[in-house]
ABC transporter
Amino acid sequence: MEISQKEFCHRSIVSMDDVSFSYEHKKVIDKLRFDVLERDFVGVIGSNGAGKTTLLKMLVGLLKPTAGEIRLFDRPLSQFKDWERIGYVPQKNAFNPLFPATVREIVLSGMYTKKRVYRRLSKVDLQKAEDAMLAMRIEDLADRRIGQLSGGQQQRAFLARAIVNNPELLILDEPTVGIDAETQVGFFRMIRHMHQHHHMTFIMVSHDMDMMQSYLGTEPQQVSGGIKFYVKHTHDPEDCRETNLTHSIGQIREMIGVQ
Ligand SMILES: Nc1ncnc2c1ncn2[C@@H]1O[C@H](COP(=O)(O)OP(=O)(O)OP(=O)(O)O)[C@@H](O)[C@H]1O
């Protein structure tokens, strides 16, 4: 059967079927049904403690649902092995300034998945890390220790790490916390560009209602417990074209705008 351009653009990236989660006896997520399709930008909004981080942790396999099923790229999560297809930036936590890794090492560590942990890094891998740092405008910080950087610079390093494999799905947990307003604007411009021109699907938790609603609209597609899902699709057939991260690094750099 011929797959139409439209269907190709709407492949299932994440599906949650009656997913529940409890910490001991405290139920945090209750029978959540939600699907993320290719090229969706899903904004996840909710009050403190609503379960947003818990949800993202389930999606990347750090927590196991108490009930229900999660599928990633149409495979049950328990059988899913292609973790390089997913980039994840967890919620920012205070970095120990003595942590010895450099920015380049942090970015390169994104190359290691369970599958490839013993593989030597190739020249191509090293170049990908340089490209990701260029895209985030942190190439000048490559040899600096991560613990010595500002919060915003650290976030960019972790974002570079998340995109180093040119993932199809980027999962971001409050990526702009601790970043100044001007850098935030550049950051949102950049992820919008990645959504529209780099064939990426996004799931992003944020408390920044203004930014989320300006891109995703004011009406949530779904409300589940204390969590609201705002979704923007890019449906134009031309958006289905494969692009790669490196081809327009200049554009991404312009998008960020500020250093
Ligand atoms: N490891 C844990 N053990 C027990 N309870 C937890 C644990 N982690 C989170 N919780 C509780 O689960 C609920 C959901 O937490 P979660 O971090 O998912 O919320 P959130 O929506 O991401 O909140 P925030 O906006 O503050 O980041 C909260 O009530 C929290 O206290």
About this structure: The chain is about 30% helix and 25% strand. The chain has a mean pLDDT of 83. Residues 23, 28, 46, 48-54 surround adenosine-5'-triphosphate (CB under 6 Å).
